[in-house]
Each structure stands twice: as C-alpha cells, then as structure tokens.
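Researcher: Here's my situation. A collaborator sent me these components and asked whether they could plausibly form a single complex. I don't have experimental data yet, so a predicted model of the whole assembly would be a useful starting point for our discussion.
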Amino acid sequence: MLACMSTQSTGRGEPDRTLRLLWRDRLGDPVGSRGPKQRLNVDSVVDAAIELADDEGVEALSMRRIAERLGLKTMSVYTYVPGKAELIDLMVDRVAGEQALPELEGSLRERLAQIAHLAWNEYLRHPWLLSIDTSRPPLGPNVSDRWEWSLRAIDGLGLSDLDMDQVVTLITGYVSGPARAYLDAERLHRAVAETDEQWWERNAPILEEIMDSSRYPISGRVGTAAGEEYGSASDPERSFRFGLERVIDGIEVYVRERTTPSAAS
Amino acid sequence: MLACMSTQSTGRGEPDRTLRLLWRDRLGDPVGSRGPKQRLNVDSVVDAAIELADDEGVEALSMRRIAERLGLKTMSVYTYVPGKAELIDLMVDRVAGEQALPELEGSLRERLAQIAHLAWNEYLRHPWLLSIDTSRPPLGPNVSDRWEWSLRAIDGLGLSDLDMDQVVTLITGYVSGPARAYLDAERLHRAVAETDEQWWERNAPILEEIMDSSRYPISGRVGTAAGEEYGSASDPERSFRFGLERVIDGIEVYVRERTTPSAAS
DNA sequence: TACATTCTCCGTATGGTGTACGGTTAACGC
DNA sequence: GCGTTAACCGTACACCATACGGAGAATGTA
C-alpha cells in the first residue's frame, strides 16, 4: 500500500528517524560499521536538494533530479533519507542555520527588527520556502536555536509565556507577506520582456470590461500606484520595512501597557 | 511537450480563458450552441473540488477524484476547466465569496477586525487554503470585491495608496499564522488517541537528550505553556485575537502619526 | 430531410512522480 | 575465509496531469 503521507511520521521502524536525522550532529549517527561505507553523507544530499530548489524552483525538486545531481541513482537517495517529506524538513532546518544569530542588542525595536530581517534574508535566498507547507515546522537544531534566540529577544519584558510565543509568531509570520510580494515583483520583472506586452494586449479588453472603475474605484487607484511603484523597479524592501514598523509599534504598545499599569483601554 | 506550468498562463488559445472563467457570471459564457449540451457546469466542478479538498485534504485533490465525484471520467473535467491550476484559482475565488461582506461600520479598530475575522473564518472552513501556493491570488470577482471592500475600510484616513495596500496585506497576511496554529492544534487533538502516547514513548529519550533545558531554557518554558494551553482544549481563538490587537495597535499608531503631525519619532 | 459542423465525453497513451521490494556486491567482524 | 550487513540500484507499481484523437450527439444550414 502506498500511503499518502503528508509531512511526517515516515519513521515506522526506528524511533523517530526524522528527529535523529535532524539532530545528527549532536547525536552521533548510530553507524553500524559493517557494510560498505556511504559514498556521500546526509549533508551533501540536503545541499544538493537546496541547490536544486534554489536553481530550478520547488516544482523541479524530485528524488530523481536530486539523485542525478549527486551522481547516484534514484533509489540510493533513500539510503540517506527516509523520504521526500523528511528531506524537506532537513532542508528547512539547514537553511535556518545559514545565517549566524547576531548578538541581541539595542532597543526592543531593534531586536525585533533583527528577527524579521533574518527571516527576510532567508526568504530572498530560498524562495521555495514560501511554497512548501510550513505547518508544523521541523524541530531541528537550527530552527530550535533560532526560536530560542528570538524568544530571548523579548524575554524579561513582563510578557506571559504565551504572549511571548505569540509575539515571535507574529513577527516572523509577518515577513512572509512582503517577501512574497518582493519575489513576485522580481519574477514579474524577469518574465516581462514582450510576453508581458502580449499579455496586456490580449487581456486589456477583458480587464477593461471587468474592472470598470465604477465597481472598483479604490482598487483601481491603489493598484495603479502599487503597479507603478513595484513595476518601475522601486524599492519593495521599503514596503517590508513599513509593515514591520507597524507590527513593532503594536508590540511596543502592548509591552508598555503591561509595564506601566496606568490606562487599560 | 508537457510543460511544467506553475500557476498561470494555460490559456494558450483564447485570450485568457482563466479570466473569462473567473468572471463567467458577469461576462456570459460565449457558448456556441452547436454540439451537445454539457451535463454539468463549471460551478458544480468547482464545488466538487472544494468539497473534496474540505473532506480529504489538499493532497487528495486530483482530477481523477474530482471526476469521480461528478460521475464523469477524468478527461471530461477538462471540458469545463483548462487545468488544475486554473481550477484552484476558481476554488479560491469561490470560497472568497462565501461570506457576505458586512457593512463597514464602527471604529477603525472594528473595521480592521472585521477584515481579519472574514479571513479567519475562511481558513477554518477551508484549511486547504493554507496549503496552496497563494503567490499571485486570482483576480476573480469575489477576491476583487473583497479587496475593494477591505480598502474601503481604511479609505479616507490620509494614508497613501501604497500604504493602504500595505495595511490590508498586513492584516490579512497576519491571520494565516494563528489560523495555522489553530488548525494544527485541532488536528493534533483529533490524532491523539493513543498514537500520541506511543509517539511520546518512542521519542521521549531522544527529545530529552536533545532538548536539555540548558540549551533551550526559554523555549522549554514557553513550549510547555503553549502545549498546555493548546493541548488542553483551551481557546486558541484568543491567541488570534491577541495578535490582531497588536497589529491593529500598530496601524492605529501610524494613522495617528499621519493625522496629527505633532511628534514624528 | 440530409449533411456538415461542432462540441461533449472519454479511451488511450505519455512522461512525470514517490517509493516498495529484492538482488548484487562491497566491506567489515569474527 | 566466511557470514553478516548495508550501499547501491533495477524493476515495478500506483498515482498524477494532461495531450490527442475518436465516437456520437446536437445543432445550423441546404
């Protein structure tokens, strides 16, 4: 039976192989040194997968293609990794460790901004992160380290444990929105050429019929502005920073409320 | 050649068939009444697909299974819809129209909360929305109506067009985070039974070795709190509301700064 | 009424996917 | 040297989206 496994729990035999793999540096591989040695190692497999996803997009990420890159045949990949879902977990944890976690210093605002910028950079480097199912992030060392580091940034402010969790989720979750926008704009820019012109030529009549400005007065106005801004190679990173300021403002308001119990709205 | 199309542009022949389909109610189908009538219609196909995704998850969503539900053979589905990517666009726009857009009234805070709650409800009803690639949302009537409605909620506040776009993106983007958390907790709850106990039994030794509280002091504390809160059937909707208040606070701060040009931090 | 046209439905086929299973062979422990 | 073990991989299976072309129904036209 070929079960349709969604993201987890492939490690049927041994107690969770995925966890063991994620923490393979800390826990040594329980390598029974009996048979022939592996030519490669888990890291090279993960690296190849990341490179492939970076180069050709997440839709090109297949076990066959990964094997190709490694000079292996498809099924050999499975001697390194239990399956594709687990491999993706490893990829996510791996890229989470690419950037060193800087010392947390400065104001709360600056520390929160550091958290956001780390995530921002990660999305720009590895756009496929936006296209994979990130429910249930893998509990690997890098993801865990970063979570701890993020929590440390807001520790000791008088927030409850649950609030702290919420705040970090909020700030990291925020980033994906503008990151998507940024990458979309970039992709658009690359794909433009004349294909774009043709697209508009074909669709202009339909769009005009549909988007009569009586139905969408504000969208029309805003869309035009956004199009000009993003289209003409402006700085979409500015948008990221804008939203970030809003989010941080909101958090600061909350922290202040908690700290100075004067006016409870 | 089987091109690997990502989400768009399948409408090769006619000027964008996807748009025509999305707006099929407004623009009448250009139905050449020559051959036999279609037994079904586009809406029933979209409905079947949504039901399937609701019932069995996004991984079960295949053209074959959809055809099955409709009493058709696989390839007949393609007479209604150009391909799977386009069908998903139609699904997204369809569920965007399920909830009537309420009158926008009350304070800015209340209006922003309305926007967020609309998205929140949608995610809870259709969890698969969190698992599909939502870069480039389809420009269908319901998505467009809702965008316009959202912009209207913050129009006339003195924000620039770009800022308005940002604010709506921010508030709707925020929701996906807690929605994911909510649905994860729910799924966990359902899958618990005794499988959970076994999972812990198997993994406890590994987890203990890894998660020694010296390395993750804060995560340990916070994780426990979150686990107790979510695990013991508390109200995760509260978390959603918490973050929402923060985001709205941040937006209010910004609006106030713009409106009363006194202290520019 | 007859014919040509057109469009639905679908059988078949192609090239992709993840991965189960079993075989071959290389490397080690005894 | 021999038995055990594990890496590598050939083959096969179930499933996927979808291109292509044929059968037959419904219509417009002659």
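Model: Some features of this prediction you could bring to your collaborator: Chain B has ten helices and no strands. Chain B has two domains: 40-96, 108-259.
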